[in-house]
Amino acid sequence: MLQNILTFLLGSKHERDLKELVPIVQKINELEPMVMEFPDSLFAEKTAEFRDRLERGERLDSILPEAYALVREAARRKLGERIFDVQLMGAVVLHKGRIVEMKTGEGKTLASVPAAYLNSLHGKGVHVVTVNDYLAERDAGWMRPIYSLLGVSVGVILSQMDNAQRKESYAKDITYGTNNEFGFDYLRDNMCWSPADKVQRGHAYAIVDEIDNILIDEARTPLIISGMAEDDTFKFAEVNKLVEQLVEVQKDPETGEYPEGDTPTVGDFKLEEKNKRVTFTDEGMNHVESLLIKRGLIRDSLFTDQNFEYIHYFTQALRAHKLYAKDVDYVVQDGKVQIVDEFTGRILYGRRYSEGLHQAIEAKERIKIAQRNRTLATITFQNYFRMYGKLCGMTGTADTEAQEFAKIYNLDVVVIPTNRPVVRDDMDDVIYLTEEEKLNAICDWIAELHTKGEPVLVGTISIEKSETLSRMLVGRGIRHEVLNAKNHAREALIIADAGARGSVTIATNMAGRGTDIKLGGNPDYRARKKAGTQAPEDVFRKALSEEYEKWQMDYREVKGLGGLHVLGTERHEARRIDNQLRGRSGRQGDPGSSRFYISLEDDLMRLFGGENIKGLMSRMGMKTGEPIVHPWLNKSIERAQKKVEERNFEVRKHLLEYDDVLNEQRKFIYQRRDEIISDPHLTERIIATGQDLFAEVLEAYKKSGDTPQGRIKTLLAALKESLLFEPQNTPSELAKMSAEDLEGTIKAELRASIESKKADIGEDILNGFIRFEYLRNIDSRWQDHLENLEALREAVYLRAYSQKNPLLEYKLEGFQIFDEMLYDIKTELAKKVFRVRIQQAPAQPAAAPHSTAVMQASHNAMGQFAAGGSSATNAVSSGAAPAFGGNGGGGASQPQAVQVKRTVPKVGRNDPCPCGSGKKYKYCHGR
Ligand code: ADP
Ligand code: MG
What is the pTM of this model? Predict the structure, then answer.
């Protein structure tokens, strides 16, 4: 009631939206006569003039009327179609960064052109996003003549294109492509090794066609790029064989400690059990070197940049053998090494030790060291599209999802009226008791329409159901076409002809989407078929004019028969998708009709219909074989659909809440990567980190109560261990210095040591080396991190049983492991650069661990009802495991009883480190 009064006073939201648009359209209309006088050559000049005006500070809004008038005229000249006023309204809405709902067949492809053109004037690129490659190519080609006349360039991104072609297409003023390609290119750009390899140039403005499909249906699963990690499994296996030959430094039998001070040490390595670290003695390093040379794994010094990584393999192998115990630190289950949480004793299913320790343990346990197919990068569509400076979209059906668009994307929906009133007759649903009865009734109805000659478009919710129906129609001898969204190009042609007299077309939800169905068939398609696909233009033209004449008669005939009938064989989970199907009929004021057939055995009815509908049915006296038709039932079904819609919204919101954590981290990492890719002075970062590490050592030095000599010795040992760095000054010289002098001296020497490396091989080579190592480090740690976060996600679900908020736990722990990762990346790299002797130019970007060839990009489509884990439809179609499968956390396998012993006293990760450094345990010896 209140709503009615308010509507009466203020007009509905829709009316208010339209009122704002009318004056703008009037302005454009006023300019029309003038623009019609323009010679063709003036169009591009106008474009140049607009760009100029923008440079000088004018705003797009003030250029809009002229620009739109210009596009309208260009379309009239090039396509013979004058953009309708309602299309201009839609175009204004798109420019405003909102969603426009315009029914199927209203000409959204053309309506997006003025907006794309206007927004391209800034020169930052416009992306027009379509649902499949076929449409991207079709739309770009279809609109190209208009853009050409206007003097703006158009490109297309197709899935089989290589990087060079992609880059070229992205460089155009306007780029058409699919959501998947845009998303994957973004991820791939952030895996590349030099700025020149990037293909995209920012995310300024995107127009998303069929926006409900892309931002809602497809948004339940993320985009994933997966691939094989660098194959170093044989190195783990080799080193595993050699490691037993290394000898631990002998301990003093009296103290049980390693000898200190000037006592000579015998042995290769020392262990620090408390913090699970291994350090090599000089002798140990030599021993490792000779073992490797003997085995033929290296030829010269261990300390060259190519051989250096063996220290890492040996370190991990030693840790695996000496410091990590089976059934204490980890367990072996089903041929897998599973980590045991050191604090709780719980098995952390799916979590892996990082930096190769996991593989080293696998080698030790003689389990197959899996060369894993792993997630290299991932993003949700929500977070991809939220990056655009301005986002807008169009679809025939957005209004039912307006709330989600507003909440998640901050996008407002504006409904534009049709150019001509819709006269389609939407009949009430017919309901049967069983599916069999329903299908029989459907076939009867199709047969009747077919005999009459009225075309029928039959919509099903899955490929299987299409096939069942097809078999039944074959049994009755009714000719028909079946579409299942496999070959978009072929299907577009078939569906274009679905309005021909007597045609019967069965399609699943997505098949042929984006293609318009004309009553009487498609003259263009027929002419192409008649003339042959390779026919020269004039032959085709001739065929077209013949077909066009015939078509006009056919059109009138089919119109007389009642137009296209849309038959829904089942209600879809979302009302929106039913509306899409209906919308295929009754375009541009054509006659048409639609009806849905339902049985109580349908998934929607079984799972969500509830007792409500059944009760209603029996009260109405439903009998076997007799359908029921009643408006009340439509209402109940709609309620059931709303329930599913709400649930799916929850699933997507949930996915997003978790992805938001990852998203912040992803942005941070990608930004860091960008800085590194283009930083010509990376040595400065290394020096800074080296000095930081020294500062940590110095803190301990200041606090230590030892004699000056003893303190210096510890300090030098720590420096040597972490940075393999030995100052020029003797220990006794250093011992005499004040703390400040000591700090100054060593910091200067640290810098000098890097400067001398720079002088030896040249800054470019050193910089290239650091960049290569940095990126490799970031990428592999980030990939570990993605896996860890995923495992964490499952783990926090289990905690929900102990009254903890899983999302909060996920956030806290997720950021903690992220921080640790950043610290590790930085320090590991600095240590390496200080220690290594670089001999040669770094590996070329081509040697980057993941070349595009071995990467797979995947996006799992979700079927109906998939998110709830019901048995209704197969949920996940393609190979890769979904990182965020939507059905939270069910994946962990059942824990088996495993005995876990604890030997190490418990130290909380945020407690002060027992070494007395004053730092938190996790940042000191807890690493
Ligand atoms: P939508 O995407 O809204 O379903 P399309 O962009 O596929 O619609 O266009 C449907 C049909 O309408 C196309 O055949 C197109 O040529 C035609 N069309 C679009 N705009 C106009 C117009 N202003 N005048 C005449 N025909 C038009
Ligand atoms: Mg379209």
Answer: 0.79
pLDDT greater than 90 at residue 501: yes
Beta bridge partners of 128: 176, 207
Average pLDDT, the chain: 84
> What's the CA-to-centroid distance between 147 and ligand 1, angstroms?
17
Residue 838 C-beta-side C-alpha neighbours within 13 Å = 26
pLDDT given at position 842: 47
Measured from CB, residues less than 6 Å from any atom of ligand 1 are 81-84, 87, 102, 104-110, 516
The residue whose C-alpha atom lies closest to atom 14 belonging to ligand 1 is: 516
Atom of ligand 1 nearest to the CA of 109: 6
Neighbours of ion ligand 2 (CB under 5 A): 108, 514
- 51 Cα–ligand 1 center, Å: 29
Pairing, β 277-280 against β 126-130: unpaired
CA–CA separation, 797 and 810 (whole Å): 9
The predicted pLDDT at position 892 comes to: 28
Residue 917 contacts residue 700 (beta carbons within 8 Å): yes
pLDDT band at 480 (very low <50, low <70, confident <90, very high): very high
68-92: average pLDDT: 97
Ligand 1 atom closest to Cα of residue 106: 3
Residue 453 identity (one-letter amino acid): G
- Estimate the crossing angle of helix 13-36 against helix 85-95, to 10 degrees: 110
SS3 (DSSP) at 127: strand
Q: What is the pLDDT of residues 258-295, one digit of tens each?
A: 887 666 778 899 888 877 888 888 888 889 999 999 99
Determine the distance separating the centroid of ligand 1 and the alpha carbon of 107, expressed in angstroms: 3
Distance from the alpha carbon of residue 799 to the mean position of ligand 1, in angstroms = 54
Residue nearest to atom 9 of ligand 1 (CA): 107
pLDDT digits (tens, 9 = 90+) for 162-189: 999 999 999 999 999 999 999 999 999 9
pLDDT at residue 492, rounded to an integer = 83
CB 70 within 8 A of CB 42: no
Alpha-carbon dihedral 646, 650, 651, 657, rounded to 10 degrees: 160
Ligand 1 atom nearest to 83, measured from its CA: 23
Q: Identify the residue whose tokens are 């039912």.
A: 400
Cα 652 to Cα 690: distance, rounded to the nearest angstrom: 44
pLDDT score of 897 more than 50: no
Q: Which ligand is nearest to the CA of 76?
A: 1
Tokens 């030693």 belong to residue: 318
733: Cβ–Cβ under 8 A, 6 or more apart, which residues?
Answer: none
Q: How far is the CA of 57 from the centre of ligand 2 (A)?
A: 35
Residue to mutate (ligand 1; options 104, 106, 209, 582; most atoms within 8 A of CB): 106
- Among 71, 94, 110, name the best residue to mutate to test ligand 1's pocket (greatest count of ligand atoms within 8 A of Cβ): 110
Q: What is the mean pLDDT of residues 742-770?
A: 89
Supply the Cα-derived Rg of the chain in whole angstroms.
Answer: 34
pLDDT at 911: 54
pLDDT tier at 874 (50, 70, 90 boundaries)? very low
Among the listed residues 298, 258, 261, 296, the one whose alpha carbon sits nearest the alpha carbon of residue 280: 258
Q: What's the Cα-to-Cα distance from 660 to each of 647, 845, 859, rounded to whole Å?
A: 20, 31, 19
* E-only strand ranges, 210-261: 223-228
Q: Which residue's C-alpha comes closest to atom 22 of ligand 1? A: 81
Strand, helix or coil for residue 513: coil
Residue count of the chain: 927
* Closest C-alpha residue for ligand 1 atom 16: 107
Distance (angstroms) between ligand 1 centre and the Cα of 143 equals: 11
Rounded CA separation 878/224 (Å)? 11
Ligand nearest to the CA of 86: 1
pLDDT in tens, 582-626: 999 998 899 999 999 998 888 888 877 766 677 777 777 777 777
CA–CA separation, 508 and 24 (whole Å): 40
Distance 104 CA to ligand 2 centre (A): 7
